[in-house]
Amino acid sequence: MTKCHRAIWRTCWGLGALGLLLVIAPVALAGNFEVIVSKTVPVASVSKADLRAIFLGEKVKWDNSRYIKVVVPEDSELFKEFLQTVVGKTPMQFDKHWQNLVFTGKAAMPRSIADTAQLVDFVAGHPGTIGVVPAGKAGSSVKTISIK
Amino acid sequence: MKAGLSIVLLCVAGMMYPAVDASALEVEGVEIHGFVSQGFIQSTKENNFPVSNSGKGSFNFNDFAINFSKELTPGLRVGMQLLAMDRGSYGRDKVTIDWAYGDYRITDWLGVRGGKIKAPLGLYNESRDNDALRTFIFLPQNQYYEYDRDSFNAITGGSIYGSVPLGRGGRANYQVQVGTFPIEAGGASAKNYSAFISTPDITSTVTDISTETSVVHHLEWRPPVEGVRATFSGLHTSFRGTAVGQDVLGNSFDATWKFANLHRYLFGLEYTWGDLILASEYQLDDYTVSADYPNAPTQSFSSKQSGDGWYVSGTYRFTDWLEAGAYYHETYADRKDRSGARLVASGYVDNPWNAWQKDTALTLRFDPVPHVVFKIEGHLEEGTWLIAETSGAEKKNWFIFATKATVTF
């Protein structure tokens, strides 16, 4: 094998590894958070596309016709990961998206709660609500749904 | 005086910042949000645009808004936004209703709205009033013309809208609106129309405007490719009115005028990759403008217009507090006469560069703390097509320098 061939081979391996990293990275990040809903929500899983639509205010109803309410954790690294992995936005882009809706009269800002326990309690007490918490922090008062 | 008031309001709003949160100002279930935005603008002395006295350097450059909204029952909302702005000869901080409507979202794919509703023309028209929601101070003017803000910014009527999943095709969001555009005779749009119907012999001032039933449609497609959204929007309207013309000797003449069959189409594409956002839009306008001067020693005229324009923009957020953006933008009075030669030959403009405008913009945006934004922006311009007020646009190559501070809550 000539030097040239080795260089090409190394480059291919490098690009392959980078591609693999890009593919598995979102899956790895998804393991750090859980999506929770109130127990009245009649789903066990939700597609990434639907989850994105919910957190952008586009999908507004569950299958049982109950309206969806979104609650978000305040200023958390975890939510940043969720936004980048699922919604495809940075926290600032997410804020701007909702401010766009607010300043055109289309929606209210999602409720923002800093404390995880309070966020879980809020979801548990409000039918139709969806939120994001660190993995393992959901407890039994809410339902954890998987991302298809 | 007005500039002083603006600065005081800006300071007051800034002091409010530690006490308020983006979602915290709520009274009896009514959410209240707003923004206060004050700027300074300086352009080349002879070319006063987009603020009518920018050639001298002007603080007549502000936007204030406050909105109130309430969810009455799940899915049913009502709200309104009051807006005041100053751009020198127009706006003048007069409070207007920016939007006010009731909104019932029946299901994901169908909702209805009635009232005064923001017109979704292009990627950014609905949110263009709020400076904090974008990188640039001035969006590309062909698509987001400052002299259209009191006309095609919001429609009074009804609309249906919704969001439809397309399976492997991504998701589509749509809006269809039917209504009229109430346009004030003393406003920015009227000044623009006055320039359109003036002739080499007679300078006209619009005195009354009425619009026919109009339609706006907007489709946003988000394909399964991460970060991509594409939009297609259309506006279909006609409007007419009266005007007073004056010749060089000071004689006055009544006139009637019409913009018939105005069809505007906008195609937009935006790509977001992390902190980088690239966008491009193309717009084309077709309409016939006519004016009739029954008792004046000038010829009535009717002219088919086929303008267009496009831009490419890029923004990048370096840190939580610093973002930079740039765009290049071209617009033409007649897309079949990009050199302007035919319009010069017909006497419609004096110079070829009066029939087009090319704009290179560079912006820095600073977010020192949440809810507070400072921007600084420069434009290098070539051509004067968009300068609506006919007085004194004498320079082919010119500049705009603008800076703006905004507080939102």
Automatic annotation (TrEMBL), chain A:
SUPFAM superfamilies to which the protein is assigned, alphabetical: Periplasmic binding protein-like II
Name of the protein in its database record: PBP domain-containing protein
TrEMBL record, chain B:
- In Swiss-Prot or TrEMBL terms, this protein is called Uncharacterized protein
Q: Which organism is it from?
A: Geomonas limicola
List the lineage, top down.
Bacteria, Pseudomonadati, Thermodesulfobacteriota, Desulfuromonadia, Geobacterales
Keyword line: Signal
Quote the InterPro entries the UniProt record gives. Answer: Porin_dom_sf (IPR023614)
Signal peptide (UniProt feature, chain positions): 1-24
